[in-house]
């Protein structure tokens, strides 16, 4: 074992030796330093490995051979080993990354770099508070020198700001140290801490001064303008160091001196962290400069960890682990992001679209962003999860709210950025430079991130083991991304099929999950079939699709809240990447993601509060929530409702589904929306029908469902965009489903299931076919289509059958849903909601007619004369689904009876009785099979009769029609399809005025304006920043001690 | 569940009666209408003449498959409604095939014909068809609101969706009729009936003046014959529905004929008195008074 | 105006904090834990008469290492900051210094150098040590610069001295690690006789390194600053 | 005596901070820093002061159990370090100030607002 | 006796500090700051800290002031 002291010896030795090298051998110096850093990394890593293995104990190193407190001692335990390894390796990679710049700028900056890394090592290891001060000063000074590496004039401004503020902080620290010394007579941190527990504790003011100076070093919001300037002025390679190493060190130091200051400050630490977390992220939303944005984000993350440290009394011995999960995510992600930023080399996040030239970097960029927000499988996900559960257990709801709100605000700008990179046009000019030595460190950080996510999962409390195989499969698909679409499509379908077979036994005997498994994976296979009609390579498509399906499948196999939520987030991420692929999808995918994340956080909040009264986090235990049950249920329900796009939370759906690629729309509409339904079902089942805490919730949800349906259908009727029309229709259908399940009666649930299955079947067909037609005709606007029935008869029939199902017209299965619905409504007594639903149901005819008429009937447009039927690969899955519809329509009993039996245990109320093929309730009866027979027979007879009568009918062109006076010359002018419900709109169109869209628009504008207003405090003036810091100190003094 | 031949034949007989009564009723109404406006009007047998003429026309044009199927769908709608409607209370044979579904089936089966017709007319490619259909659908959505409210009110009142059961509950005395036990629902439904029958003031959909062409012209010969046939059946069947729901049903064909006559007459009567609404006017009108009445009819029974 | 008021208020706030500091100020009646230990044992443990030196070089030698690094850093950064301009700067015309200054420099510089060396060599016996001595050496250079503004100190020599003494310091520390109790332990060499120049183990040697290094660094800073180019833009 | 010195130190500290947040001239800000540091040093040294005790330089090794009558050497050692650090920081700040001055030709802090928001 | 010296030194250093902050001429301000350091080093002597006093005199009032003056010189050079 090489002693940790050699880290310092090597670093200083090399730094001092560099002076001897002279100017002749610039790159030799670089290699020298690189070797030194490698050695330092090796030393710390070897300690880390040994400590993790448990083969050795942590040690204390006494300098000068005397025991503390009489001399300075360093400590190398697990914490120190981890952090020094992180810092040294980051230094190593940074130097690799900065290679060229460093070599050019000469040995001085190499010395500074070396001393910088060394100083952080010492600050972490030292157990002497004055020594800490000295090396903190070294770190500060070295950093202020490293800022200059970039060679810009602004760097000097940032440097002096940094020096001045840290000068104030270190001065206060010195006062604190000497005061502490005067009281306890030692400078040893352990000594002071143990004295604090005894009689001779240090004065509160000493603790305050020590603490506040470390806090100032952490750049707390809003006294952090100088810190952000440092981020934005320095070279991104240095930014990576500041964010990854310096911030990490700062946090550990805060943790280290907390016992010196005393426990009474913990609350203030939490408060400071919370303010920073929210405030910094909020300010970040208005930022468009990548480095500065990363700075805001870093400070936000530091705020989060500060909060965690402050929550020690609640988190107990898990504090460090939890802080570590966040720190490691932040470390790797931020370093990677800064490095990429250095490669992109632009002052606007909009230019990051250049990354598309480097798919691997783009993927890593996405991973970094998601890791920062806290998506699985990254460590921050585990961390946030456990923190929230712990907070929930201790009833710290306000902190839960703060963490979720801050994370959400962070997502606002990070996701925006990600979207820009994926979607915006590539910049005309760019100074990007993707040299390999610059890329390698980023790859390594990506590996670290994924590796740590995998490694840390088992250590997380309240967590279940995760099945990583689907994620690996997604990775595999990414690896073979260069193959043509047909091969990847086959592999993906095979994978889904295999996974389906794998999961089937697992859900055996659980009909609920079986149904959804068929919908998720079966539906997935069917919609993927349509992919064979696509040309090219579709880069990234298949791995993301697999990601989404993996998430969906994970929902089904989830046993506890953790793996459920894990899968939920995986699914969200995958679907986001699928949705954003559409040509004009950027804003819509963005709002989809924000609503999804918001919803996910509500769910998380609900789970966390639920954890307060549960033993463990089993999903089925939700029914036993005793603390704030109504809140728990409401939060979780609203969370799921963001996915089902219920009223108020629906504004993302039309764009997201409407603009998605033609085969993505059916995936996200027919399949993905069902995830929300599945979630709601799980929730409802665990709540139980008779739960006294949820009756109001169901009542409200019922109304929301009914109004959603009405609004969805009405909006659909006024749409001119074919896919958006379908999207609004989805909103409405999900409204029905929500309504049906909210009734919490046996028949209501049967209706809900019928609707769910129907929606899956017909919406997949419609989106597949309409999507393909839209691509084929090159327009979304229905009034630019027309007369396709002769060109695309198979499509027409499929669409016709689908709309008959949507309309609920007997004899097809849609009517089964309607019939069950009214029986349920009457039984439940929700008459007005029922009437509203019925009204909505009729309005559905408006858009159904519009859809089929505008696209298939009427006159053919001139430029569409030579159209052919859409690809067979789209028709095949559609017709398979039609077979499903027909079977369901003819034999409803065979589907409904098992479902009925499955849900029987949940309800005490009356059930559906079958008499042969006839379904009976106390209210009425319905015989699907007979209706099929009667209608079929009568229809055939009548058709035969008409054929006999008009056997000689002459076929004429459509344009061969009778006119009274003026005769239009061109057929397309006679296709009336634009705004055909003008009169209707005039009468009640005000009902669908986009109040909710306007509301969300204004909310987001408000947030951005507010952020823009806040960041005005960052006026750039050194004086102002100093005033902020002093103000901050005084205010916290008054709050924490002034009141004492 | 009776699928026997005799059942089928009786049903055909019922259909025949309904068809003829429907034609007679329509000619009678047109005569009344003419008298009110000072004309003589058509002879009572004019519908039969028309029908025979239409079915025997030789020139027949089709614009395509859906155009061809449109009338079939439409007629299926009318016939289906008849098939699922119990016509004569207490008669085993004229209950038709109402055992396959209840009131909800009837309500939704109306759409079957409408949709088919709309699609058929749509394929005709005539711009006025689209206009007519869009107006018709717009108006129809609101017509159904008071009707639904009334039906829900009835369902609460009788606690059943079965038409036969509703009729049964109204037997005994004239005071048991829904019109007396639930007058609000009846009013709402009868107002909705005005729209359903499409007479003035709610006849913009097939307004004779603005749309002289479109479906009636595009569809001619046997196609139009089928449509006319359906019209006769549909009118009687719908009137029979209202009769069953609100006026005690019918125990014999005579009773049915009298009751349906008055129900049908009610819409004609209103039509001769009021001028035509524009589509946005009728939409708003239906959502106003009839809806409010309908809501009150539910509140009274909650 | 608002700003000035705010500044005054903040100063008042700082005053409040400092009042609190004053309130909590503990006047020592006797030596505290650490001081007490050093007063009793430092002399015997390190062999240094000057306890401050004992603390600075041995017990808190690690701090001193950091301190030296700070000066090293500062010098590096400053020379990095002005480096490129310097290379491109043209020779400047300096106003010649006064006769008196020049001649006094010639007298004082050697004396000051010797005094400086004396100070850090005797750091373990009398007040003073590496820092003070280093500062005196730097002052000597300063004087030379004043007398001869055009003079260029040989950066090479300065940085050689700086590097070598730095390495020496570190190696001395390692020697303590290898041959004695720990990093910077001074008992590698014998403690010698108390109060003599060649006593206190490694302390004088370390202090010489420190003195040389500090002197070199300060001279470096001073000379960089004095040779700044006039115009950059 | 210590009282007076402590108050001097504290007042210097306050004066220094006041100067840092009030001055508009960069050189003045750095000056204020040196004041702040000087005040700090005074404060620190006076912590270790014990009335009537001598400087921590011994003439002989104290015997067993004997406590020499000296002031606490620890704060002195700390201040020694702090002074040197202060010099380093001051020099660096001044170098920055010079650079900034060369950039903009002024010492007014409000001219250096290129980084903001 | 010591008290009086301390008071005098305190007053000198505070006056020096105020001058350093408020005097318009930078040279005077810098020298005043040097004076503060010098008085501080005397205070250190009073507090039985000869080592610190030496350091403060050499570094605080000596080198620091010189560096200040150098910088000031550069600034003046440019102005003049």
User: Under CATH, the topology of chain D is which?
Assistant: Helix Hairpins
Question: What share of residues of chain D is helical?
Answer: 55-70%
Count, helices of chain D: 3
Total domain units of chain D: 1
* Main sheet specs of chain C: none
Shape of chain C: globular
What is the 3D shape of chain D?
Answer: elongated
Look at the structure and give the CATH class of chain D.
Mainly Alpha
**Element-level helix/strand string of chain D:** HHH
Uncertain residue ranges of chain C: 86-90
Query: Distance N terminus to C terminus of chain C?
Result: 36 Å
Overall radius of gyration of chain C: 22 Å
The proportion of residues in beta strands of chain C is under 5%
What keywords describe this structure?
heteropentamer, A: 1044 residues, mainly alpha, two-stranded antiparallel ribbon, 39 helices, B: mainly alpha, 12 helices
Overview of this structure, please?
The complex is a heteropentamer of chains A (1044), B (302), C (233), D (117) and E (80). Chain B has 302 residues and is mainly α. Chain B has 12 helices and 1 strand; from the N terminus they run H-H-E-H-H-H-H-H-H-H-H-H-H. Chain B has one domain. Helices cover 71% and strands 1% of the residues of chain B. The two termini of chain B are 34 Å apart. The model of chain B is unreliable at 209-213 (pLDDT under 50). Chain D is mainly α and 117 residues long. Chain D has 3 helices and no strands. Chain D starts with a helix and ends in a 13-residue tail after the last helix. Chain E has 80 residues and is an all-alpha fold. In chain E, helix 1 packs antiparallel against helix 2 and helix 2 runs antiparallel to helix 3 (50-79). Chain E is flat, with a radius of gyration of 14 Å. Chain E starts with a helix and ends with a helix. Chains A and B meet through helix 31, helix 32, helix 33, strand 5 and helix 36 of A and strand 1, helix 3, helix 4, helix 5 and helix 10 of B. Strand 6 (954-955) of chain A pairs parallel with strand 1 of chain B.
């Amino acid at each position: 074992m090489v002693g940790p002291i050699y880290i310092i010896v090597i670093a200083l030795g090399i730094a001092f030796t560099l002076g001897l090298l002279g100017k002749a051998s610039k790159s030799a110096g670089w290699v020298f330093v690189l070797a030194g850093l490698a050695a330092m990394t090796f030393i710390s890593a070897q300690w880390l490995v040994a400590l993790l293995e448990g083969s050795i104990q942590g040690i204390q190193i006494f300098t000068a051979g005397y025991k503390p407190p009489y001399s300075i001692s360093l400590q190398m335990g697990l914490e120190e080993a981890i952090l020094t390894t992180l810092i040294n390796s980051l230094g190593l990679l940074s130097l690799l990354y900065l290679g060229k710049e460093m070599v050019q700028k000469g040995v001085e900056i190499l010395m500074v770099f070396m001393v910088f890394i060394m100083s952080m090592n010492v600050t972490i290891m030292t157990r002497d508070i004055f020594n800490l001060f000295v090396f903190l000063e070294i770190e500060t000074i070295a950093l202020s020198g490293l800022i200059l590496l970039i060679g810009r004039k602004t760097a000097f401004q940032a440097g002096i700001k940094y020096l001045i503020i840290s000068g104030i902080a270190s001065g206060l620290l010195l006062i604190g140290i000497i005061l502490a010394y005067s009281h306890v007579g030692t400078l040893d941190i352990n000594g002071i801490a143990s004295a604090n527990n005894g009689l001779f504790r240090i004065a509160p003011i000493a603790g305050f001064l020590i603490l506040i100076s470390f806090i100032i070093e952490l750049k707390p919001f809003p006294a952090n303008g100088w810190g952000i300037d440092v981020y934005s002025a320095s070279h991104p390679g240095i930014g990576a160091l500041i964010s990854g190493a310096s911030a990490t060190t700062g946090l550990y130091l805060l943790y280290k001196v907390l016992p010196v200051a005393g426990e009474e400050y913990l609350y203030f630490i939490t408060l400071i962290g919370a303010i920073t977390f929210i405030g910094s992220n909020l300010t970040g939303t208005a930022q468009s400069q990548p480095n500065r944005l990363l700075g805001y984000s870093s400070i936000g993350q530091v705020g989060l960890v500060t909060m965690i440290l402050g929550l020690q009394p609640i988190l107990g011995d898990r504090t460090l682990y939890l802080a570590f999960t966040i720190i490691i995510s932040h470390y790797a992600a931020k370093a990677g992001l800064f490095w990429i930023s250095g490669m992109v080399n632009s002052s606007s996040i909009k230019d990051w679209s250049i990354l598309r030239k480097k798919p691997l970097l783009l993927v890593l960029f996405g991973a970094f962003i998601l890791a920062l927000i806290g998506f699985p499988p990254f460590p921050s996900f585990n961390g946030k999860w456990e923190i929230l559960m712990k907070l929930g257990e201790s009833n710290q709801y306000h902190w839960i709210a703060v963490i979720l709100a801050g994370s959400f605000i962070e997502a606002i700008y990070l996701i925006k950025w990600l979207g820009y990179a994926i979607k915006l046009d590539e910049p005309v000019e760019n100074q990007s430079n993707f040299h390999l030595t610059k890329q390698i460190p980023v790859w390594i950080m990506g590996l670290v991130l994924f590796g740590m996510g995998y490694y840390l999962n088992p250590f997380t409390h309240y967590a279940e083991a995760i099945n990583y195989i689907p994620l690996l499969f997604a990775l595999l698909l990414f690896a073979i991304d260069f193959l043509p679409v047909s091969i990847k499509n086959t592999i993906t379908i095979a994978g889904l099929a295999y996974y389906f077979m794998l999961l089937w036994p697992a859900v055996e005997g659980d009909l609920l999950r079986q149904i959804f498994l068929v919908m998720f994976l079966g539906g997935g296979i069917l919609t993927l079939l349509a992919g064979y009609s696509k040309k090219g390579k579709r880069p990234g498509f298949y791995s993301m699709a697999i990601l989404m399906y993996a998430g969906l499948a994970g929902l089904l196999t989830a046993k506890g809240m953790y793996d459920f939520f894990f899968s939920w987030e995986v699914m969200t991420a995958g679907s986001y990447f699928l949705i954003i692929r559409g040509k004009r999808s950027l804003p819509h995918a963005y709002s989809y993601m924000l609503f999804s994340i918001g919803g996910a956080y509500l769910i998380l909040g609900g789970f966390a509060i639920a954890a307060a009264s549960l033993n463990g986090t089993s999903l089925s235990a939700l029914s036993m929530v005793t603390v704030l049950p109504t809140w728990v249920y409401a939060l979780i329900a609203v969370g799921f409702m963001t996915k089902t796009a219920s009223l108020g939370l629906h504004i993302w759906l039309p764009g997201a589904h409407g603009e998605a690629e033609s085969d993505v729309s059916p995936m996200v509409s027919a399949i993905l929306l069902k995830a929300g339904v599945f979630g709601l079902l799980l929730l409802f089942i665990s709540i139980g029908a008779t739960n006294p805490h949820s009756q109001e919730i169901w009542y409200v949800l019922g109304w929301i469902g009914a109004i959603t349906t009405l609004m969805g259908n009405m909006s659909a009727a006024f749409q001119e965009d074919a896919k958006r029309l379908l999207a609004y229709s989805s909103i409405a259908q999900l409204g029905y489903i929500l309504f049906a399940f909210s009734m919490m009666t046996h028949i209501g649930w049967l209706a809900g299931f019928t609707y769910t299955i129907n929606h899956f079947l017909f919406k997949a067909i419609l989106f597949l076919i309409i999507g393909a037609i839209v691509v084929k005709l090159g327009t979304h606007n229905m009034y630019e289509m027309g007369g396709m029935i002769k060109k695309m008869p198979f499509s027409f029939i499929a669409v016709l059958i689908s709309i008959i199902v949507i309309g609920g017209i007997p004899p097809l299965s849609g009517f089964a849903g309607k019939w069950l619905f009214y029986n349920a409504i009457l039984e439940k007594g929700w008459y007005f909601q029922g009437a509203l639903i019925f009204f909505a149901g009729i309005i559905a005819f408006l858009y159904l007619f519009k859809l089929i008429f505008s696209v298939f009937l009427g006159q053919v447009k001139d430029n569409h004369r030579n159209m052919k039927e859409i690809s067979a690969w789209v028709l095949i899955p559609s017709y398979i689904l039609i077979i499903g519809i027909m079977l369901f329509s003819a034999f409803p009993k065979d589907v409904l009876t098992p479902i009925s039996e499955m849900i029987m245990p949940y309800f005490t109320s009356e059930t559906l009785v079958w008499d042969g093929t006839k379904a009976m309730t106390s209210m009425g009866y319905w015989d699907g099979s007979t209706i099929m027979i009667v209608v079929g027979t009568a229809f055939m007879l009548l058709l035969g009769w008409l054929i006999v009568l008009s056997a000689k009918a002459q076929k004429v062109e459509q344009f061969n029609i009778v006119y009274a006076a003026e005769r239009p010359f061109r057929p397309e002018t006679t296709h009336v399809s634009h705004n055909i419900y003008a009169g209707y709109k005039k009468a009640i169109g005000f009902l669908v005025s986009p109040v909710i869209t306007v509301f969300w628009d204004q909310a987001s504008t408000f947030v951005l304006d507010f952020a823009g207003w806040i960041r005005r405090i960052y006026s750039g003036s050194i004086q102002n920043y100093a005033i902020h810091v002093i103000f901050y100190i005084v205010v916290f003094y008054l709050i924490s001690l002034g009141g004492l | 569940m009776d699928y026997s031949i005799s059942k089928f034949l009786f049903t055909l007989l019922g259909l025949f009666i309904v068809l003829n009564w429907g034609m007679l009723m329509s000619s009678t109404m047109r005569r009344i209408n003419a008298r009110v406006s000072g004309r003589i009007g058509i002879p009572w047998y004019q519908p039969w003449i028309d029908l025979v003429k239409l079915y025997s026309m030789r020139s027949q044009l089709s614009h395509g498959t859906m155009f061809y199927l449109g009338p079939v769908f439409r007629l299926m709608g009318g016939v289906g409604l008849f098939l699922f409607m119990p016509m004569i209370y207490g008669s085993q044979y004229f209950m038709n095939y109402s055992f396959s579904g209840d009131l909800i089936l009837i309500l939704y089966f109306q759409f079957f014909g409408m949709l088919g017709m709309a699609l058929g007319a749509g394929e005709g490619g005539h711009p006025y068809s689209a206009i007519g259909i869009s107006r018709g659908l717009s108006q129809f959505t609101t017509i159904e609101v008071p009707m639904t409210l009334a039906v829900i009110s009835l369902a609460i009142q009788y606690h059943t969706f079965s038409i036969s059961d509703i009729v049964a509950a109204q037997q005994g005395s004239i005071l048991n009729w829904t019109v007396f036990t639930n007058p609000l629902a009846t009013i709402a439904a009868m107002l909705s009936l005005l729209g359903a029958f499409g007479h003035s003031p709610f006849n913009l959909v097939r307004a004779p003046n603005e749309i002289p062409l479109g479906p009636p012209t595009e569809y001619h010969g046997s196609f139009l014959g089928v449509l006319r046939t359906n019209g006769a059946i549909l009118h009687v069947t719908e009137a029979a529905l209202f009769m069953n729901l609100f006026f005690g049903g019918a125990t014999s064909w005579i009773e049915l004929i009298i009751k349906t006559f008055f129900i049908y007459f009610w819409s004609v009567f209103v039509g001769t008195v009021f001028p035509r609404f524009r589509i946005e006017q009728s939409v708003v009108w239906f959502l106003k008074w009839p809806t409010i009445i309908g809501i009150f009819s539910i509140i009274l029974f909650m | 105006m608002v700003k000035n008021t705010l500044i005054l208020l903040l100063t008042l706030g700082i005053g409040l904090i400092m009042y609190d500091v004053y309130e909590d100020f503990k006047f020592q009646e006797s030596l505290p834990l650490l001081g007490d230990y050093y007063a009793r044992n430092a002399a015997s443990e390190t062999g240094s008469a000057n306890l401050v030196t004992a603390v600075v070089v041995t017990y808190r030698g690690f701090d001193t290492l950091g301190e030296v690094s700070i000066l090293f850093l500062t010098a590096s950064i400053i020379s990095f900051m002005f480096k490129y301009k310097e290379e491109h700067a043209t020779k400047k015309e300096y106003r010649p210094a006064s006769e008196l200054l020049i001649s006094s420099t010639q007298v004082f510089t050697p004396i000051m150098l010797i005094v400086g060396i004396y100070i850090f060599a005797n750091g373990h016996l009398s007040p003073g040590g590496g820092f003070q001595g280093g500062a005196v050496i730097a002052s000597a250079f300063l004087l030379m610069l004043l007398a001869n503004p055009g003079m260029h100190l040989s950066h090479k020599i300065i940085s050689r001295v700086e590097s070598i003494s730095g390495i020496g310091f570190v190696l001395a520390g390692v020697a303590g690690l290898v041959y004695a109790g720990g990093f910077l332990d001074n008992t590698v060499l014998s403690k010698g006789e108390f109060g003599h120049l060649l006593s206190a183990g490694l302390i004088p040697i370390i202090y010489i390194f420190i003195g040389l290094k500090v002197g070199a660094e300060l001279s470096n800073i001073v000379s960089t600053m004095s040779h700044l180019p006039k115009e950059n833009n | 005596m210590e009282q007076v010195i402590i108050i001097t130190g504290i007042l210097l500290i306050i004066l220094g901070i006041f100067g840092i947040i009030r001055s508009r001239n960069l050189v003045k800000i750095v000056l204020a820093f040196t004041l702040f540091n000087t005040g700090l040093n005074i404060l620190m040294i006076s912590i270790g002061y014990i009335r009537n005790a001598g400087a921590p330089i011994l003439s002989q090794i104290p015997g067993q159990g004997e406590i020499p009558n000296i002031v606490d050497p620890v704060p002195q050692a700390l201040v020694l370090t702090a002074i040197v650090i202060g010099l380093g920081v001051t020099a660096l700040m001044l170098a920055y100030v010079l650079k900034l001055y060369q950039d903009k030709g002024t010492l007014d802090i409000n001219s250096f607002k290129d980084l903001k928001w | 006796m010591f008290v009086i010296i301390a008071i005098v030194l305190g007053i000198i250093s505070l006056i020096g500090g105020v001058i350093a902050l408020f005097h318009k001429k930078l040279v005077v301000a810098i020298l005043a700051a040097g004076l503060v350091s010098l008085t501080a080093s005397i205070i250190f002597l009073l507090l039985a800290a000869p080592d610190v006093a030496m350091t403060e005199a050499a570094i605080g009032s000596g080198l620091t002031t010189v560096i200040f003056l150098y910088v000031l010189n550069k600034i003046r050079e440019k102005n003049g």
